[in-house]
Design brief:
Rossmann fold; globular; four-stranded antiparallel β-sheet; alpha/beta; 10 strands
Length: 272
C-alpha cells in the first residue's frame, strides 16, 4: 500500500471548515480530540426505522472523533447503512440522540445537517453522470459563497486522476474514479465530518487500497471519517475505531486492532 500507511501524506487541514489562513497541519491519524460533551459526532442509543415501518436500529451507538477513521462492519442486513443514514437524518430516530460537536441535531433535516458541516457520500447515485468531473466538484460547493478554487486544487491534489479528467463526463469514468469524484464533491463543502457508505463497493482490490490510502490522507487533516464497509478486514486495518453491528444493534466495539484480534469477531465476520 502507499505512503499513507507509513506516516507520510497530505497534512493540510484547510480542506475542512476548521481551516486557518496559515494552513496549520491537523492532528495525525489516530490522534483524536474529543468534542465538548463527548465525541465529535455521535448517534447515541439510536432506535428507529424508515417512516412508519418497524425499528431497524435497536439502541445502537456509533461515534467518531476528530482525526479518527471509524468503520461500521457486519453481515448483510445488519443495519450498517441504516445506522449511517440515521446519523444523516434520513430515517426516523424514535429514541436516542444525534449530536455534532456537542449540539443536538436529532431533529434536523439532511439539508440542515449539510449546512452544519456533515458531508455524506451514499453508495449509489452519488455523482452526476452527464456532467464533467469539474462540474460535479462545483456542484459540491453549492452551499458556499466564498472562493472555491483553493479547495478544488486540494481535491485535485488528493485525486490527481480527476485533474487529468476534469473535462470528461463523469459517467465515462471507471468505478473507482467515480468514487473519487463522489468523495471529492463531498470535500468541496469543506465538511466538519465525512461519511462514506460502502466507498469501495464494486472496485478491484488495487483500487480499494488506493481509496483507503486517500481516506487516510483525509483523516490526517483532522477531518473525522466515518464509513460503512463490506470489506471488513481491510477496513478494520485502517480504523481507529470499529463497530460491528448485528440486526441493528451493537455486537462488538473496539479499536480496529482489537476487533481484528478478537476471536469471536474473526470467526463470525472475518472468515476465521
Amino acid at each position: 500500500m502507499s505512503d499513507a500507511y507509513t506516516g507520510r501524506g497530505n497534512k493540510d487541514r484547510s480542506i475542512t471548515k476548521e481551516s486557518t489562513s496559515d494552513m496549520v497541519p491537523g492532528p495525525q491519524h489516530g490522534q483524536a480530540h474529543p468534542a465538548p460533551g463527548g465525541p465529535f459526532l455521535i448517534g447515541e442509543n439510536m432506535t428507529g426505522g424508515y417512516g412508519n415501518g418497524p425499528d431497524i436500529l435497536h439502541d445502537c451507538t456509533i461515534a467518531v472523533d476528530r482525526g479518527e477513521i471509524a468503520v461500521i462492519v457486519g453481515p448483510n442486513g445488519a443495519g450498517k447503512s441504516t445506522g449511517m443514514k440515521a446519523l444523516f437524518g434520513m430515517l426516523n430516530v424514535r429514541a436516542g440522540q444525534v449530536r455534532l460537536d456537542g449540539e443536538d441535531i436529532t431533529e434536523l433535516s439532511p439539508q440542515d445537517r449539510v449546512q452544519k458541516g456533515m458531508g455524506f457520500v451514499p453508495q449509489n447515485n452519488n455523482i452526476f453522470t452527464s456532467m464533467t468531473v469539474e462540474e460535479n466538484l462545483e456542484m459540491g460547493a453549492f452551499i458556499r459563497t466564498d472562493d472555491i478554487s483553493g479547495t478544488m486544487a486540494q481535491v485535485y491534489d488528493l485525486f490527481p486522476i480527476l485533474k487529468e479528467k476534469r473535462n470528461q463526463f463523469a459517467g465515462e469514468l471507471s468505478g473507482g474514479q467515480r468514487q473519487q469524484v463522489a468523495v471529492g464533491r463531498a470535500l468541496m463543502t469543506k465538511p466538519k465530518v465525512l461519511m462514506l457508505d460502502e466507498p469501495t463497493a464494486g472496485v478491484s482490490p488495487i483500487v480499494m487500497d488506493e481509496l483507503f490510502d486517500r481516506i487516510i490522507e483525509v483523516a490526517r487533516t483532522g477531518l473525522p471519517v466515518l464509513m460503512v464497509e463490506q470489506n471488513a478486514r481491510q477496513a478494520l486495518e485502517i480504523a481507529d475505531k470499529g463497530y460491528v453491528l448485528v440486526q441493528g444493534a451493537n455486537s462488538h466495539t473496539g479499536t480496529g486492532k482489537e476487533l481484528l484480534a478478537d476471536p469471536d469477531v474473526r470467526r463470525s465476520f472475518l472468515g476465521g
